[in-house]
Amino acid sequence: MFIYLPDGFEAITMDQTYVIVPAYNEAARIKDVIGEIRKYCKNIIVVDDGSKDDTVKVASRENVTVLRHEINMGKGAALKTGCDYACSKDAGYIITIDADGQHQPKEIPTFMKALEKADIVFSYRMINRKMPFVLRFGNRFINQTLNYLYGIKIKDSQSGYRGFTADAYKKIRWNATDYYMETEMIIKTRRRRLRYAQLPIQTIYGDKYKGTTVLDGVGIVAKMIGGKLF
Amino acid sequence: MSTTFWIQFLGVIFGIAMMYFTFVKYKRKELKSHELMMWFLGWILLMLVAIIPSSLDLIIAPLHFYRRLDFFVVFGFFILLGMGFYNYSVTKKMERKLEVLVRRRAIEENPQVEQKHEKR
Fold first, then answer.
1. Structural domains counted in chain A
2. A8-67 residues touching B, CB cutoff 8 A
3. pTM of this prediction?
């Protein structure tokens, strides 16, 4: 199998790289997503977060590591399970990617390249008309609140396509089980004074009923305020 | 009939109904005998207060409440806030325990998944 390596990267580095894919009811897309990721990384961990469809069955056929939550616990919990497992396998680098096909695995080498100089790499989606209005407005509002309350300027605080070193993960290991984990990760990055980079990514928007909703956004802002106060 | 009668009547009916539901929970073994006693005591006290509201005057007078109802509103609000906080903390504790359990089982069960792949 041929794996694309970023310039200057040894194969051993890619051996230590694990891609974590949290999945919830993604039986229809997971096969293609795994197939694409495999071109760039062989260590793939799918964490099924209590799906009601055949996500586990489909992912298991693809010969990747499949961890299964018996009940739906949320994206934060699923990612933590995957990251903990990767660390137990002596992972050096961890990439998190959504299972809905929104992110393009061809960008994994760019993340790896950026991780040469940073502990954490955040991605940001290009703000254009393709991005749903609610998402555009909500994201901007959360980013501004994050900057105002915690003094950290992140272009896209809600993008789930991220990369970090295993050492950095141990310092930013989040408590949130839901979508707040992405924000908590940023806050901890700032508090632990870790080096971070931001990368532009291309995004394909699919199911508008999945992912962060307006209510999730309100919850994220409320938790940010609560985290600052208490 | 005075307005007080209907408040007393509703208070007693509510107390009896709650005693019945508490007893059903006890028979289903969802409550232990000491929990049954505790809840029964609470409902009996509520009915007593509903039947003899003047029994509260001993508490209300030193606190300078104008009416008994004012005392009920303030006291009830405190109780609700306390119960809300208690429920919140218990739920959070349960969530945390559940998360730890689910995540641990997911990781521990994984070797079986890997073995299946090797057999294929």
1. 1
2. 47, 60, 63, 65-67
3. 0.77
